[in-house]
TrEMBL record:
GO terms for molecular function: ferrochelatase activity; heme binding; metal ion binding; peroxidase activity. It catalyses: heme b + 2 H(+) = protoporphyrin IX + Fe(2+). The keyword rRNA processing does not apply. This is Deferrochelatase. It comes from Streptomyces diastatochromogenes. NCBIfam families: Dyp_perox_fam (TIGR01413), tat_substr_1 (TIGR01412). GO terms for biological process: iron import into cell. Its cofactor is heme b. Involved in the recovery of exogenous heme iron. Extracts iron from heme while preserving the protoporphyrin ring intact. Keywords: Heme, Iron, Lyase, Metal-binding, Oxidoreductase, Peroxidase, Signal. Binds 1 heme b (iron(II)-protoporphyrin IX) group non-covalently per subunit. Its main location: other. Residues 1-25 are annotated as: Disordered. Residues 77-221 form the Dyp-type peroxidase N-terminal domain.
Length: 427
């Protein structure tokens, strides 16, 4: 869990804050709810998507959380540079037996059409479930990626990026293959749980006979507005998590996170690579540590995220500072020390994780932790060198366990009239 700060603002290219609009695709959920009381509209179980089309305008304004809208079309796909979202679903699919490039193209076309409508706060193109009928877009983002195996299944091996080569083995890995990898990957995020579930269900239904779910994971973060001001998130260990994340305003941000427009292969221009890891936190063991011991493991104060060398959360860490006994104030194996980009050849990645809690094991141990998602222009220069260094002596490794892993090529955003991955599948 590298010590890098999370972006707090939506970026103009992929997350313009706009109210939901019709956009020529039928009335939005927002418009329906705004007029339901005035028209006496009542929909039973058979109402379905027809009810959306029948509802008149105008719309009643939503709350600020419900009205936030991310844009589907753009230079980059949504769900990368936006701030953390309150609810997330990660799901991987494998193409069905006999399905190939033609079926994959049709599937990505369906998924893109559905994502565009749902992100605008509208009903799914067909067979809408009404789960999110009362809500606006709620900053919904839907992101699509391709796994290593996808290219063999579709006869596109020559288009497989070298950066998609399998990740090396790490000593801390205890990976469940059934919950790792996959031909296709979808990331869903929203600031409302029902909006996120609605999108998950629509994507799953759209898969039809072309693909089946390989694995699916659910995550969460703090809801926007739950704190007096925007703050770096806390993880389930109670630590402020993400203090040194690259920021879109950084001069080298695009260089570190996105494949250049002139990069190879050409279909990955303006895309990125996502490393996805399910990291179990051994919370019972962690919570037995004293506050002082927890802070020594991380290298930062738990209360405010400031480095143990002093200052505030954003104060540069003084790695040479020693106490009266001559001991480093920030321990040599502290997580924050090991993950610093200047201690890893400049390796950097944009972390955008979700916490998870999947119940209590029979022995009373919580199945909880971090759905780690990080973005980089090349995982061999981003995730891999940092994880190798963590493998060699991170104090935090005693309290976490990597249980699943995936690496996915996420192409650039779809232009108007395009679907995600069209340049690969039709190129």
């Amino acid at each position: 869990m590298p010590d890098q700060s999370l972006p707090q603002a939506r970026t103009p290219e992929s997350a313009v804050r706009k109210p939901a609009a019709d956009g020529g695709h039928g009335i939005s959920r927002r418009a329906l709810i705004g007029t339901a009381g005035a028209t006496g509209l009542v929909l039973g179980a058979a109402g379905g998507a027809a009810g959306y089309a029948a509802a008149p305008a105008p719309a009643t304004p939503l709350t600020s959380v419900g009205s936030e809208r991310a844009m589907f079309h753009g230079k980059h796909q949504p769900g990368i540079t936006e701030g953390l979202q309150a609810r997330g679903h990660l799901v991987a699919f494998d193409l069905a037996a006999g399905a190939g490039r033609k079926e994959a193209a049709a599937l990505l076309r369906r998924w893109s059409a559905t994502a565009e409508r749902l992100m605008a706060g509208e009903a799914a193109p067909h067979d809408d479930t009404d789960v999110a009928r009362d809500a606006g877009p709620s900053a919904l983002t839907i992101t699509f990626g391709f796994g290593h195996s996808f290219f063999g299944r579709t006869g596109l091996e020559k288009q497989r990026p070298g950066a998609l080569d399998p990740l090396p083995d790490f000593s801390s890995d205890q990976l469940d293959k059934a919950r790792s990898d996959g031909d296709l990957w979808v990331q869903i995020g929203a600031d409302d749980a029902l909006v996120a579930f609605h999108a998950l269900r629509a994507i799953q239904k759209d898969a039809g006979s072309a693909a089946r779910v390989r694995w699916q994971m659910n995550g969460f973060n703090r809801t926007p507005g739950a704190t007096a001001r925007p703050m770096t998130a806390r993880n389930l260990m109670g630590q402020i998590d993400g203090t040194r994340n690259p920021k879109p305003a950084d001069a080298d941000f695009d260089q570190r996170i996105f494949v250049p427009a002139s990069g190879e292969p050409a279909w990955m221009a303006n895309g990125s690579y996502a490393v996805v890891r399910r990291i179990r936190m051994l919370l019972d063991d962690w919570e037995k540590l004293s506050l002082t011991a927890q802070e020594a493991v991380i290298g930062r104060r738990k209360a405010d995220g400031a480095p143990l060398s002093g200052g505030t959360e954003t104060t540069p860490m003084d790695l040479d500072k020693a106490d009266a006994k001559g001991e480093y104030v920030v321990p040599i194996n502290a997580h924050a020390r090991i993950t610093r980009p200047d201690r890893n050849g400049g390796a950097a990645m944009l972390r955008r994780p979700f916490s998870f809690h999947d119940g209590i094991d029979a022995d009373g141990t919580p199945d909880a932790g971090l759905l780690f998602v990080c973005w980089q222009a090349d995982p061999l220069r981003g995730f891999v060198p940092v994880q190798r260094k963590l493998d060699r002596g991170d104090a935090l490794s005693k309290y976490i366990r990597h249980e699943s892993s995936g690496l996915f090529a996420v192409p650039g955003g779809a232009a108007d009239g395009e679907y995600v991955g069209q340049r690969l599948l039709e190129g």
